[in-house]
Amino acid sequence: MHSFGLTDEQRQLQALAHQFSVREIQPVAAHHDREQRMPWEMLHQAFAVGLVHEIIPEQYGGAGLGFLDSALVGEELAWGCMGIYSILMASELGILPIILAGSEEQKRRWLPRFSEKLLLACFSLSEPGSGSDAGSISTFAERQGDEYIVTGTKCWATNGRVAELRVVFVKTDRKAGTQGITALVVEGNPPGLDCSKEEDKMGQRAANTAVLVFNRVPIPVANRLGAEGEGFKIAMRTLDKTRINVGAASVGLARRALEECLAYAKQRVQF
Q: For the segment 92-104, what is each residue's pLDDT rounded down to a tens digit?
């Protein structure tokens, strides 16, 4: 008979993440949300105890944890602050296309950086004129020799301003719908990329959410994940995996809301 219980290691990981939330996230969550400020010190502490990018395979310096393990961590960190956890969840979202679709050379080139020190990644699919309809994106990459020249605007890019690298989905064939989408890895801040505009959100304000404006930005062809036209498939494979953590984080948030309501109901005096 199959058991759905957690292993001892998973329970220890769950307890570690919850204790970290209680000690490090909960006390600073309101401040960073109110000030719309990235909690860098706390993020470095999370990295030091192994709660950042835990899905990176062991051969690239990571912990090589599975998606259930990642969901357990996500539920507990979101219990502390959904906005702060969004930073880490979105960074994992930015790394996963490389794990799923990168060549061996690309994985060895990029993944160890995120195992060695705290760096953040970004996944950028949405645009002002296209949300869930990914086939209608208009950011275009024209190939010129060994480079793509990228022009267009992406929005709602979590970690967009602060990321070490961004996986950006662009059109390389305007007439091919979803079959014309290609995934490119944008490293650092190349000339022509403007990430200065930050969204002023109603919630989850600790997380940086930026508009990415590409004005003829050169990206090496070597930074393409998969072949031209495979970007939509890569994006959907990535989202299939990372939506698990969105659900887990929502459970953590709901748990925290229930606990806060119960605590208030027990101490409230009326009439």
A: 999 999 999 999 9
